[in-house]
Amino acid sequence: MNRSPLADPEALAGYRIGVTAARRAEEQIALLERRGASVEWAPFLSVEPTRIDADALRAATEAVTSRPVDILVVTTGIGVKSWFDAVESWGELDGLLDVLGRAEIIARGPKTVGALRRRGLRELWYPESECFDDVLTHLRGRDLTGKRIVVQEHGQSLSMVAHALRRQGADVQVVTVYRVESAEDPAPMFRMVELIADRKLDAVTFTAAPAVAAMMQVAEVTGRRDDLVGALQADVVATCVGPVTAAAFEMWGVPTIEPERSRLAAMIKLLETELPLRRSGTALEVAGHTLLVHGESVLLDGVEVHLSPAPQAVLQALLVNPGHVVSRRQLLSVLPGGSTASEHAVDMAIARLRSALGTKLIQTVVKRGYRLVVG
After folding, report:
1. Would the pTM count as exceeding 0.70?
2. Ordered structural domains, the chain, with CATH
3. How far is CA 73 from CA 69, 129, 175, 204, 296, in A?
């Protein structure tokens, strides 16, 4: 366990933080409590996320090795490790590595790269974002006619991904190494949903995208989904370990924060700086001006600026990660009206925000979205 002797015992004093992790939960809780936080824990996933159907995996592996593979797409480090460990226990790993070693390997991120290299395989490419969507974008831009692609699932079904690749002419096989299941005891999950929906937490942490889906499912069953989403949009900080987990919130219009490096300690460190800012108000140097935001109050160089709900919502979304690009889709999801709003509404909100704050504070990043020009 990380003992971090430099932890400030008062950094998170007075804050109540929810933890949804099943794996390494004790470590995360210790890191938070060592900084003075009050912690509520409710695992949303099984503590044994790597439940493997050995017979099904063996059949899938035999199908993989039956003929050459053109492209291998690996999505999780733990999935690759579990797959190779299982095949090794059957005495058939050399044959699998020989077939995969001849393929073009695309990895989702550093953890998958590490798992591959430990077995002597080398990736050709992986996205800096660590987002699976960027892997798909990379593949969408290519001619896949007749290519045999093997995709390692990441605990949730990738059948729609396989279907999309087949529409490009590829021959796709999905290898299911394990399935992620919800936690066995639902009571803590129900309690966590109530705490979030009632805005009794300052933040809640997520280390796996399936945990987000499990939480929303519980919220739907209890009739608190709208309350939960509203709380996460306004008062409870959804804190994610990395971009893959954060992406699970996009469809709900929930802004998230995430560290630059997808590491547990980095996520906790981010909370140390983010929560006090949220409580006292966010002050930033933006394009040579001082922007202070506290709740719905906005001051530019000390002068109060009045914003209508749409530009206010856009500004709040841009402030979640100042200087980082926020996509049009994300901005659309936070606008009043949500799914009923149009992309034109985003354009109008940006225009009104620029009119109120000045045109130089918000930069358009072509084909990606918008960002505050901090510094």
Report:
1. no
2. 16-48+183-277 (3.40.50.10090), 54-175 (3.40.50.10090), 281-372 (1.10.10.10)
3. 11, 16, 10, 31, 45
